[in-house]
Amino acid sequence: MTSGIHHVTLITGDVQANVDFYAGFLGLRLVKRTGGYEDPRQLHLFYGDYAASPGSLVTFLVWQGGSSGQAGAGQVSELSLAIAPGSVGYWLERALTHQVKVEGTGQEFGETVLRLRDPDGVVVKLVSADLPALSMPEGGIPVEHAIRRIRGVTLLSEVQEETTAFLAHYFGFRPGPVEGPVHRLVSDVGDVLDIRDASGFWLGVPGTGTVDHVAVRAPTPEAVEATERELQKRNSSLTNLHDRHYFTSLYVREPGDVLIEQASDGPGFTLDEPLERLGTTLFMPPDAPDPQATKVMLPQFGLPGEERVVYRDLIYKHRFYAPDHPDGTTIALLHGTGGNETDLMPLAHRAAPNATLLGLRGRSTESGVQRWFRSFGPSIFDQKDIRFESGALAAFFDEVRSAYRPDPGKLLALGYSNGANLLGAALLLHPGFIRKAVLIRPAMVLDAAPESDLSGTSVLIILGETDAFRSQGEALAKELSSAGASVKTEVIAGGHGLSEADHKVIGKWLEDPLP
Q: VOC domain: which residues (predicted)?
């Protein structure tokens, strides 16, 4: 068996900062971008050498804005990348120039190590190691100082001897030197697994800034299947075999509970992209439901030198989706109860394929469910909170106009259910903060409508024929009309849930908003 590391998969909470660090600062090539195989709504990025060779691949699951984890027992704690002997000085100067967090230099197993932190706080060690260099992409880093390949990872195990024996027996690593609490395993190609005694450590907590798993190499899919048969003889080793399109993979937890994957070297990443265009197309797993809609929900980014959205810290957490051919329209989206900033993007994209989408996330939570304002019970709403959040929403749109400068004549808001309820209330409480709005399955949530002048404001209200809240939506339409808004009400078949008819009604109205 030819042993070695195939790839390491980590979790990031900020895709743009991640791309800037790994593709920009480190100079790795983005070789593939896909929806996640476990969850297609999760972006998965792969970095590596120019040819996407096993042994160079560092991959990230994107939990945009997700909660931070903590490295501990049962996890990989550090990622090491090989650089040429004598290159530490270059990288130290580069890190200081790029304002990358440096934790110092030292010696480990006779090699000089520069310890850095990536934007999520992961320890990335640049190790002066005399390993054969893979072909890195051309860029601003001199070839003699370029990242060569993965040097290794550090596993935290409370059962160090069992972990060491397991990895050596099943995956072809050889026992190497011991330094303090670390036992080193060495592969045929020279990369390493450092097993650190984690007795008494806290348990690892999954989340952004942690490593999900390390994948070791197998030459063929048949070799992966052979390993599965061997592991099945151990009653304690549960395995999962998957076709990941670019490689066959087998997952197992070693005795210390670190997730280990074995991945075949082929067929490789040129299966659906030519070598010179690797990483330029977003691919979805073959079994992804509605892949085009899912693509719209994934976070976007720009490679170094490319145009990108520079996000501002505004009242509401938010995310943009920019279409390939924007027409200048910007639609702000307010999700329903339990949703998030991406939920309405597929609907809005179908209605207006060339519109830029701005998804907002509500700030209120009840029983762990995301909302826009508090309630005291079914249809009993906190009037003070509605007024407070209505003011925050109006202020947010002022911030958007200042921070992102959308075309004022092509900016509109769209809300569904709880998001539509807040949007309708804000229209009455803060006339003119938005001049065009779509309210899907709304309800009148204000106890009393204030005197408002909504002349010059166009509103589309879409009600469900059998929706229990239909009458409350009709009451809101009446109040908006009484205040001078141009209101068009459409009743479609169905209840409170979204339907296929919604985007068609919205698309038609956007072409001609007059009632």
A: 4-129, 149-265
Tell me the whole-structure pTM to 2 decimals: 0.95
Residue 402 φ/ψ, nearest 5 degrees: -80, -40
Residue 292, domain member (yes or no): no
CA dihedral 79, 82, 87, 91 (to 10 degrees): -30
What average pLDDT does the segment 275-298 reach?
Answer: 94
Q: Which of the four pLDDT bands, split at 50, 70 and 90, describes residue 512? A: confident
pLDDT digits (tens, 9 = 90+) for 87-110: 999 999 999 999 999 999 999 999
Residue 451 pLDDT exceeds 90: yes
Q: Can you give the pLDDT at residue 368?
A: 83
According to DSSP, the β-strands at 318-321 and 356-360 are antiparallel
Instruction: Provide CB contacts within 8 A for 345, sequence distance 6+.
Output: 296, 297, 321, 333, 357, 359
Cβ count near 447 (within 10 Å) = 8
For the residues of 267-291, what is the DSSP string, one character each? E-GGGSS-GGGTTSSEE--TT-SSH
Task: Tell me which of 103-107, 290-294, 299-303 is least confident.
Answer: 290-294
Sign of the Cα torsion 396, 347, 272, 42 reads positive
Q: Distance between CA atoms of 54 and 422, rounded to whole angstroms?
A: 51
467 in any annotated domain: yes
- Which of 275, 251, 255 lies closest to 263 in space, CA to CA? 251
Collect all residues with Cβ–Cβ distance below 8 Å to 356 and sequence separation of at least 6: 320, 321, 322, 323, 326, 329, 330, 331, 406
Residue 247's pLDDT band (boundaries 50, 70, 90)?
very high
Residue 162 pairs in a beta bridge with none
C-alpha of 449 from chain center = 40
Mean of pLDDT values over 10-39: 97
Whether 515 shows a pLDDT value over 60: the answer reads no
In 13-165, beta strands by DSSP E: 29-35, 43-48, 57-62, 76-83, 101-108, 111-117, 123-128, 149-157
Other Cβ atoms within 10 Å of 514 Cβ, number: 7
φ, ψ for residue 259 (rounded to 5)?
Answer: -75, 120
Cα→Cα distances 216→54, 225, 262, 302, 408, Å? 9, 14, 5, 30, 53
Q: How many domains is the chain built from?
A: 2
Same-domain pairing of 89 and 214: yes
How far is C-alpha 58 from the geometric centre of its chain's CA atoms? Answer: 15
Question: Which of 264, 283, 302 marks a domain boundary?
Answer: 283
Q: Residue 458: which CATH number?
A: 3.40.50.1820
* Residues sharing a CB contact under 8 Å with residue 448, sequence separation 6 or more, in sequence order: none
Are residues 269 and 316 both part of a single domain? no
Please name which of 284, 209, 224 lies closest in space to residue 260, comparing C-alpha atoms: 224
Whether residue 36 lies inside any domain: the answer is: yes
